[in-house]
Each structure stands twice: as structure tokens, then as C-alpha cells.
Amino acid sequence: MHEARDSIDQTFGLVPTMGYLHEGHLSLVRRARAENDVCVAWIFVNPTQFTPGEDFERYPRDEDRDTRLLEAEGVDILFVPSVEEIYPPGFSTVVEVRGIITEHLEGQFRPGHFRGVTTVVSKFFHIMQPDRAYFGQKDAQQVAVIKKLVRELDFGIEIVVCPTVREPDGLAMSSRNAYLERSERKAATVLYRALSAAEQLFRQGGRRGGALRTAMTNILATQPQARPDYVSVADPETLDELDLVTGRALASLAVYIGPTRLIDNVVLE
Ligand code: PAF
After folding, report:
1. Greatest extent of the chain over all pairs of C-alpha atoms, in Å
2. Which of 99, 77, 101, 81 is nearest to 91 (CA)?
3. Ligand 1: residue whose CA is nearest its atom 5
4. Active site residue 2
């Protein structure tokens, strides 16, 4: 594959996914197609990024539908490896970005999650050697971690971040939205409403991290089905929590709606 690529000097755009595709994923595919000669997608529900007791077993999967969608979008290569192909028996290598950036927020509630992400992403980057890789802003901390990984290990891959795609009522698209029952689906709009409250306060001049977090917490408190893991206003690159916002800030949250854990964020700028 790489020989062919080198000889004809084509650019490769990679769209990494765990499948059960929605418009958010498809927006990454469209961008990758527009910006590269060859668009490669992978579908792999990566077991090592799920913590014990999480939803690895029941994570939604529909390979036939995903394949049809990717074909319709004109993806050139689809890679759907098995767990054994990626992690053969005895596999013991990890790639880890250490520090606050992986310990805070998602890292605090999902220990080992980012180690699983950076290990599998490194492996796929080596296998496919793309010029660009496309990720959604919805997973803002993942994006920050992968950018640091690529920089520090000199992968030489451009990380392209695409905007979060939302349902008409503001809910960020996510494969896990499939878990929501009807009343939970309605309740889930509280995440974006909370983020919008922070945005509004920011637009009105609010710069204190505490006040911005309180604005979000107050909205979440109006929804009895919502149980927050965290509400954060942090530096978008380092993920350090901010007392005072002097430049850009990432307002983010993780909230259980019933048994389903959802994340979302907006950049305040
Ligand atoms: O964002 C995801 O779907 C996953 O974390 C990724 C990047 C495909 C790695 O498994």
C-alpha cells in the first residue's frame, strides 16, 4: 500500500472511528475526501480504551450499514480489523501521554482510557501512514492528547479537527445517543443548554472560571435525570483548569443521563 502511495505521490486522509456512524463521522469523511487523494476509514471498537464495567460489550455495532454509508461517501479504503489482529496474544506495548492532559476530566473518571486511545491510534498511524487524520471536536480532550502525541513522537501527521455536529435541538451527535430512551433523549438536551449558558456568560464578559462552571452546574441541576461527572473550564491545549479566562477556554462536561454517560464541549473565544 505504501509503495503504491509513494510512487504516485498521493495524499492519504485517515478517518479513525469505532463505527455505528452518524453525521459527525460522515462530516470527517467528507472533509478527508475533499482534502486528500485517498480517503481511508477504519472501524475498530477498541477494547483497551474502555475501562472495566464500561460498555465495550454492548457498544452499538452495525458493520453492514457503516460499510454502505462509507461507500456512498466515496471512501477508498475501509479497514475493519479484528481484536486479535490488532492485539495478538501476548501484546504488551502501550503508548501513553502522561500528565494533567490525560489525568484530568475524562482521565479522572475513565482511568487508562487515553492510554488505550493513544496506543491504538499510534498503531493505526504506523500501519496507514496518513498525511492527515480527522477527529471531531466533540472529543476535545482526545484531540488535545492526540495532537501532543503526534508532536512529541514526531509522527509528521496533520491532525484536522472538525466541528461538532448537533441534532436540531443541540444534542451533540454520538454513537452512544442510541442508548437513550425517549425521556432520556429529551433530558439529554440539558448538556448543550448548560454549555450555552457558559457561552452566554462569556459573551457578556464573564471570565471567572468559577462563575462559568456555576452557570453550567445551575442548568444541569434543573434536570433531575442528569448526574454530572464533571463540569470544567480549562485551557484547550493543556486541560489545566482555569480560575480566570484570559484567552481561549474549553467549557466541557460529562453527564450521566440515566445509565448513559455523555460528553460535550464548546470553545469559548
Ligand atoms: O474517537 C473515537 O471514536 C476513538 O477514540 C478512536 C479515535 C477511533 C480510537 O479508538
Report:
1. 59
2. 81
3. 117
4. no
